[in-house]
Amino acid sequence: MRVVIAEDQVLLREGLGRLFADGGHEVAASRGDARNLVATVAGHRPDLVVVDIRMPPTFTDEGARAAYEIKRSHPHVGVLVLSQHIETSHAIELVTLGGFGYLLKDRVLAVDEFLDAAERVARGGSALDPQVVGRLLGNGRHAGALAELSDREREVLELMAEGLTNAGIAERLVVSERTVETHVRNVLTKLDIPDSHNGHRRVLAVLAHLRATQIQ
Amino acid sequence: MTYRARFGAAVVWAITVAAAIGSIVLLAMSWDRALTDDLFSGFGGVSFAAMSVAFASTGAIITARVVDNAVGRLFLLIGLLLGVGLLLYQYAAYGLARPGGVPAMATAAWLVNPVSQPSAALIGLSLMLFPDGRLASPRWRWAAVLCSVAAVLVSVPSLLEPGSIPAPFASLSNPLDIDGIRNVMIVAGMFGWVLAVVGMGLGATSLALRLRRSHDEVRQQLKLVLAVGAVVTAVTTLDMLTWLPWPHGGLSVRIGIVGLLLTAFAVAVGVAVTRYRLYDVDVAIERSAVYGVLTFLLAAAYAVTAVALGAAVGSDSRWVAAGATLVVAVAFRPLRAALQDLVDRRFSRARYEAIQRVSEFLERLRAGQSAPEEIEPLLRELLSDPDLELRFFLPESQVYVDTAGKQARDDRGDARERTPVLRAGAPVAMVLHRPTGPERPDPLVTLVEAGGLAIEIARLRVELRRQLAEVRASRARIVAAGNAERRRIERDLHDGAQQRLVSIGLRLRHAQHQLGSGQPAHADETLDEAVTELTVAIDELRELAHGLPPAQLDAGLDPALRELAVRAPLPVQVQTTPERFSVGLEAAAYFVACEGLTNAIKYSGATAVVVSAQRSNGHLIVRVSDDGVGGAVDRLGGGLRGLHDRVAAYGGSLHVESAPYSGTILTAELPCGS
Fold first, then answer.
1. Is the reported ipTM for this assembly greater than 0.95?
2. Taking a contact as any Cβ pair under 8 Å apart, which residues of chain A between 135 and 194 contact chain B?
3. Is B509–A109 a contact, with Cβ atoms under 8 angstroms apart?
4. Could you give the domains of chain A?
5. In chain A, at which residue ranges do the beta strands (DSSP E only) sit?
6. How close B514 gets to chain A, by Cα (Å)?
7. What is the pTM of this model?
C-alpha cells in the first residue's frame, strides 16, 4: 500500500511514517500542511492519504477540506482523517463518501487495528472511530429497537458501524465468522435494516439508522 | 445715524422737560387764579406736565436703547406737543389771571389746542406701531393714514376757527379772524376727534390681533400694554362720562386723573418696548388684581355684616363694628386663597395648567401608572421645547447620564442652556433646554421644582440600571474569560501534550518493532528519543498549569504569597495574615498580588516590592506597592480590567495609585464579612 502523510508536527509525521514502514507499507510522500495535497496525490497516485484535521495556517479544518477535495478529484483514493478530538456530525458526513476513515490520533498506538482500518479505507471501506460510534449509540440510553439488542449484538453493531467486515468482527471478537453472520442478521432484523452484501452500504444503512434514532 | 438719532432725542426731551418745568413754574406763580373751566390749574396742570415728561422720557429711552423704533420717535413728538401746548396754556392762563396781562397772551392761548390736540391721534398711531415700530401688515397703512388725517383735523380747524378761543380763554379771540368759516371749522374739528377716537380703537384692535398670533416675549409686551391700556381706557371713559351730568366744577381733578392714567400708560409702553423687567409686571398685575378684588369683597362683607347686625341687634356701633371685623378676619385667608387660585387660572393659565399637569403626573406616579422617566417628555410638552433633555447626576462616578443610562457627551456646538436640578442642596440632574425668556419666575424652574420627586426617582432608577448593567457585563466578561481560558487549556492539551504523548507512543511501538526484528541497538536509540520527548512533554504540562490557582493556595494565602515572593527576581517583602478565607476570595487575592507583582517586575523598574494582605473593617485588603517609575494607570489596561472583574465578582473594588515617579500602589478591597 502506498501512503501519503499530511501532518504538521514533525515528530508525529516521522512516527507515522515509521509505523507504516514497519507495517510493510510504502510512504510515498510526507507533507507538513494541506496545501497542494491534491497535486501531491495526483503525482504519487497513493492508495491512502492520512491527513491531520488541524493544520497550518489556521489550525481549524484545513485537513477536512483537503480530504473533501481529494475525494472529489480522486474518488478511488482512500482518505483517513486523524483528529485530536471528536466531532460527530463532521465525521459522519465524511464517512458517507466511502473509502473514508475518521479516527482519533491516539488510535495509532493500537498498531494492528490502526493498520487494519487504514487498509480497509484504502480498499474503499470505511473506518469510524469507536468514540463516534459510541456517541451515536448514546451510551446505552437508546430506547426502542436498540434496547432489544443483546450485549453481544450491540458489540457487533458497534463494530459494523466502525466499518469492520464480518471477518474483521470475527477476528476482533474471537468468534467464528458464522457466529458473526448470525449476530449481524439478528441485528439487522431487529433494527429493520435491509441486508446488503456490500460492506460500505451496510455501514451507511447502520449509520443512517443510528442517526435517525439519535435525533428522536 | 445712531448718534444723530440719540442727539435729536436728547434735544427734544430737553425742550419738553424745559417746557414742563416752565409750565409748572407759571402754574405755581398763578396757583390761586380763578378762571372759569380752568382744566389745567392745580392737579390737572401738574398731572399733564408729568404726562408730557413721561411720554418724552419714554420716547428718549426707547430711542437710546432700541434706536430704530418709530414708537420712540412718536412718543418724543407726543411729549413735545403736550409739553409745549401746556406751557402755552399756563402762560396765557397766568396772563389772564394777572392784571394787565402778558405779551402775546392771545397768540399763546390761540396756539394751545392746535399744538397739543394732535397728540391724541398720535397715541392711536403709536398703538398701531407697537411693539416693533412697524405696522402689523401693509393693510394697516390706511389706519395709519386715518390717524394722520385725524391729527391734522384736530389741529388745523382749531387754528382757523374764528371768534373766541375755547375755555378758559373765552375772553380772547382768534387773531386770524377769518370770517364765515366758523361752523365749517367746528364740524371739521369734531370730525377730526371722531377720527382720532376711531384711530385709538384701531390701535387697540391692532394690539389685540397681534396678541393672537404672538408668543413668548412679544406676547408679554402686548399683554402688558393691553392690560394697562384697558384700565386706562375704562377709567378715562368713566371719568369723561362725569362731564355729562356735571359739566363744571372740579374739572382740574377730573382731567388730572386722565393725565395720571396716560402717564402710567406711557411708562407701560416704555417698559414693554425696552423689555426692562418685563415679566415682573405679570406678578405685579396678578398681585394687584388679587388684592384689589379682596379689598372690595372684604369691604362689601364688612358693610353687609354691619348693616345686617345693625338691623338685628340695634345700633350699638361697638358690637356692630366688632362683629363685622370678626367676619372680615375669618373670611380673609380662605378668600385670599380662593382668589389667588382664580387669578392664577385667569392670568397665568398656561403656568397654572402646567403645574396641574405635573401634579397629576405625580399622582399617577404614586399610583404606579406612570414611569418616573416620563417626566422628560412631559417637560418637553409643557415647555414646548422638543430639544429639552434631562441628564441625571450619578454621585458615585461623578458623571451625567441620559435617561437610557448612557454617559452624556457634551457637544461644543450645543447651544442649549443648562439648568441644574437640586434636591436638598445636592445636584440630582441637569436640564438642557432652549434658552428661556426673561419671564419670572422661570416656568422651567417652577415645573422642575414641581416634578422634582419624579426626577429624583428617575435618577435612582437610572443609577440602579447602570449598576445592574455593569454587574451583568462584568459577569459576562468573567464567564467569557473563563471560557477563553478553558479553550486555551483544551487547545494546549490537544495540540501539545496529547500529540506529544502519541508520538512518544509511536516511538515505543517502533522500538518494539525494532526489538522484534533483531535491531536492539537501534531500539536503544529510539527509546532515548522517547525519553527526551517525555521531558519536553512534562515541561509543556508545567507551562499549561501556569495561570491556574497554585497548589500552595490549598495551604492558605500566606504560604502562596511567600512562594510567589521567592520566585520573583527582585526583593519582595510579604506581610500577610495567617487567617483563612473562602477559596474564591483567596484566589482573587492571590491573582491581585500576581498581577501587581508582574507589572512591578515587567514595567516599573522597581528595586523592591511590598505585598500585603490584611483584614481591616470586614475587608481583606490586598496591596502591592513598588518604588518604581509610576504612571501605570494607562499601561495596566486589559490585565487590570480582568482583575477588576475578578475583584468585583466578590463585591470588592480595585484602585491604582500611580503618579509619575512616585511608585505604584495597587489595592484591592474584598469584603470578607466580620
1. no
2. none
3. yes
4. 2-128 (3.40.50.2300), 134-215 (1.10.10.10)
5. 2-6, 26-31, 48-52, 78-83, 100-104, 126-128
6. 9
7. 0.44
